[in-house]
What we know:
Layout: H1 2-35, H2 39-51, H3 55-68, H4 75-88, H5 92-105, H6 112-124, H7 135-150, H8 155-184, H9 188-201, H10 208-228
Amino acid sequence: MSGRLVNIFKKAINILLIFFVIYGCSLFRNGTKESEKSPEELMSEGLAEFEDGGYSKAAEAFQKLKDRYPYSTLAIQAELKLADSLFNNESFEEALEAYREFERLHPKNESIPYVIYQQGMCDFLVMSTIDRDQVSTNNALREFERLRKQFPNDIFSLKAQKNIRVCLSSLAEHEFYVGKFYFKSGHYSAALNRFENLIAQYPDFGQYDKTLVYIAECKQKLADNKSLQ
């Protein structure tokens, strides 16, 4: 009985060894093949996916190139294309971080005006309506104005000018919206502060005349309330 068990055990061991040789080597070869992709192959793969609209797969390829070959001549291009892939995939928060990292690592790169513009666009494309908080609008405006200041003659700086006006218009409309809300709620002092700030900060964005009317009404309401005290 013991001899029979020994033979069964040996056969089982042999089967496991054969299985490992066949399938283990196959897995090893596949893993080696993947790890042996050159920077050029990964770049070509990423660009092909990018052109076909496969931005998630493109980002994976550029990330692999960036991580595996940080000293490759293609690494900087991969970093920027990674950010572009995330942006085109509408992963704006991740794209923003990727663009910021690129600027930190390569502040003198010739693509920096484009990179700053894209940082602004990451917030510009998710700006809230005028009845919401304007954090994204302010962030986008800050980047576009930084671009205009640092690279006034660059083509992306000229493109940013149009977006700057859109941001300022949105901020002006938001200020007017909040001012009217305070006015209708009977908070005339708070409304007055909003309307006066609008006149001071955004005089050229279509709210000037009607804001002056509200300012006069706020002052009248405050004067009336004071006389009743």
